[in-house]
Amino acid sequence: MRVEYINPFVEASLNILREVTGVEVKRGDLYLKSSTMSIMGVAALVGLAGDVEGRVLFDMSKETALYVAGLMNMEEFQVVDEMVKATITELANMITAQAVTKLHDLGFRFDLTPPALFTGDNMEISNNLDVEALIVPMKFGPTGEDGRIEINVVIRERI
Predict the structure, then answer these.
(1) Model confidence band, residue 35 (pLDDT cutoffs 50, 70, 90)
(2) pTM for this predicted structure
């Protein structure tokens, strides 16, 4: 996976999360995960197609989804309801739109699928692209541990 594909997603995640939550956001150390992995509880999935194929997954716990949705909507949520789901989906839209705009400016051409949102316990996702997922952890909040979203990127160039 080329670093040119990853950096715009990292930058967009930092920018958008800071902007919409109003709290400090820090990027953790990047790491790789195998092609099958557990999901923390709430995940927004955006597909990529065109010059590349793959997906971006925004993975978080239910508690983090409630925290982020609360900050973005300036109200408190107790359950992952339709408003929380819509907010997390919109967050995924905002981040991927900014990242893809940067990639288009660099000459890369591909399209996005609308985000699909998954919620539940004991879920796994696997990809059939024979590419490990690059994980970019984002930690945020006053303590730096109030929320954690893993930006999970799998991209490969079409042959």
Answers:
(1) low
(2) 0.90
